[in-house]
Amino acid sequence: MLKQYINFIRSVSINAIGKTGVILTTATFVTFLIFEFFHTVGVFKNAYIGLITYLAFPALFILGLILIPIGWYRHKKESGKSTQELLNQQFDTGQILPRLWGSRVMRTVFLLTLVNMAILGFASLRMLHFMDQSRFCGTACHQVMNPEWVTYQRSPHARVACVECHVGEGLDALIASKLNGLRQMYLAALNVYNRPIPTPVHQLRPARETCEKCHWPEKFLGQRLITHVNYDDDSLSTPSYTTLNVKIDAGTGGKTPGAHWHIAESNRISYTSLRDERRVITTVWQRNAAGHATIYHDKRYPSQSEEEQRVMDCIDCHNRATHIYENPQDAVDERIRAGTLDRTLPFSKKVSLDAIMHQYPDSASARTGIADHLNAFYQRDYPDVFLKKRKQIDNAIRVVQDIYAINIHPYMNITWGTYPSHLAHRQSLGCFRCHHHNMVNKDDEAIAHDCTLCHSILALDSDSPYAFLIQSDSSKTGAMQRYLKSEFFRTRF
Ligand code: HEC
Ligand code: HEC
Ligand code: HEC
Ligand code: HEC
Ligand code: HEC
User: Fold this and answer.
1) pLDDT, tens digit, for every residue of 407-440?
2) What's the rounded Cα separation, in Å, for the pair 96 and 357?
3) 323 CA distance to ligand 1 centroid (A)?
4) d(CA 409, CA 432)
């Protein structure tokens, strides 16, 4: 048996193809064993070494295995001998080990194993480290990931690596993501991927693993005061304010529950949605700590859909925590509020909004189109402003072009509203996907949806964001009013 095996190897190794096959299989097998040993004893902890061990080595091993029969077949044909003859050639078994070691093939195998280990290990590590960087994910496929890359860079998570959210923990997730990456590269190369890229992203790492590393439910305390400023379409772009006191508590320990009630330890909400898109929710299960479920169903849909139940987590509200696309109105309002867009230019809100709402065929024509729109407007309606405020107008053009470049990506078919945020009820139905009068339990009781459940509205399109303070706080009215009128306050809003 042994003799025949060695004869087989020797015969195969006579020609180049077979030799390569033998060297490949032996070298990768030995390297695999060494890597596996270090894994088991815990020297290698990095998941990427696992990726090499379990993906790259087996691939090379199989390649070697394929080459061996080809080599064997070639040798058989060239020597003209039968299989029996080849396997039973005279061979001095007493000399096997020294002969083996003395043979060029075995020396090469040994040497190549070492070289293999060093090169493969090092190159793959470098490569994988490189591929892990957000810059690679964001820019390697050029236009494909550009929208995500642009929106990511200006989000609060610009310093959190893509893989932190997009690649799950453990080897399975890593391999799945790399295989998926390969598939995507292939689709991108053939230019046959979906535009826009579909959400929800099913491979996303579970939010409780990622988000809760940095934000955890117990941290969401009490309420959050949020003011929105909205500028009018008039020549002064007059501001008005909406101030909300948003309840965000998880509601544990007897506190008033708010938005994070859904993710408190004791609650478990799951739901099904039409086509699993999470936009139109059909059935909701509310389970308490004891596991008892109350089922709510939207009356307008036939009962119980086939779709899989999804347990609600951070992403069901914060689906746009990183890739943040704006509303056109909000985008302009935000630039005026921040002072980058000059409100002293007449109709600054209206003219900017008109410019970005126009449909342009591609990004380059959008840039020139926006510049032309603003220039033409001031030249025609405000010739003296056009001459005197050249710098401000040029600056406004840049800011408006920037809004467009961040939010609109014609190449990927992304326009206003393609990826709506579910956080509130402004860009999509958001909270109202469940909180509405048609979503009822078996007793026909709807999920709560009155306007004070989630926030109290302290000012609504009002002249001052804190008008309610002036009205309610008579003793300190003087001080408060002075504050609201102060330069400090006005420059912030
Ligand atoms: C803080 C977490 C986080 C980080 C960091 C992050 N993403 Fe995302 N990403 C998300 C979430 C959440 C979604 C939307 C998931 C859903 O709705 O199913 C998403 C969606 C996407 C999508 C689908 C299209 C879309 O906008 O919905 C792509 C593509 C994507 N991300 C790529 C990237 C790239 C590239 C990076 C790094 C440059 C990155 N992501 C960084 C959380 C993150
Ligand atoms: C590596 C840490 C880290 C991870 C992981 C992370 N975040 Fe954040 N997140 C931050 C930081 C830092 C900020 C910015 C805080 C600030 O600017 O005040 C932030 C800000 C936010 C904000 C805005 C808060 C505000 O003040 O408006 C939201 C919402 C948010 N994260 C949700 C998420 C969600 C959802 C996930 C999971 C998909 C996630 N985060 C994952 C660190 C993280
Ligand atoms: C039911 C919807 C919902 C779910 C689920 C949810 N959030 Fe929130 N979250 C909100 C709302 C609403 C706000 C306040 C409004 C805003 O920030 O614009 C908020 C605010 C936040 C903030 C800012 C808090 C602050 O103190 O200012 C962070 C950070 C955050 N959420 C992270 C998370 C993380 C992490 C999860 C998952 C563990 C999560 N949220 C789950 C709705 C939700
Ligand atoms: C997937 C469905 C779903 C979505 C989406 C959803 N909720 Fe809820 N929410 C529920 C259910 C179910 C309850 C419990 C039933 C009830 O209170 O009537 C609930 C309860 C609440 C409560 C009351 C908790 C209490 O006991 O008083 C608040 C506050 C709340 N949600 C806020 C929000 C906010 C804010 C959003 C959007 C950012 C939101 N919810 C989105 C399903 C949902
Ligand atoms: C299930 C929770 C919930 C209910 C019920 C709800 N809201 Fe809201 N609402 C929110 C959240 C969350 C926000 C976002 C807060 C933020 O970040 O600005 C919001 C924002 C707003 C805003 C300011 C932003 C905007 O979209 O213009 C207004 C105004 C508003 N709500 C009015 C109402 C009114 C009126 C009702 C009753 C018909 C109502 N809301 C019911 C959760 C809710």
Assistant:
1) 999 999 999 999 999 999 998 999 999 999 999 9
2) 81
3) 6
4) 28
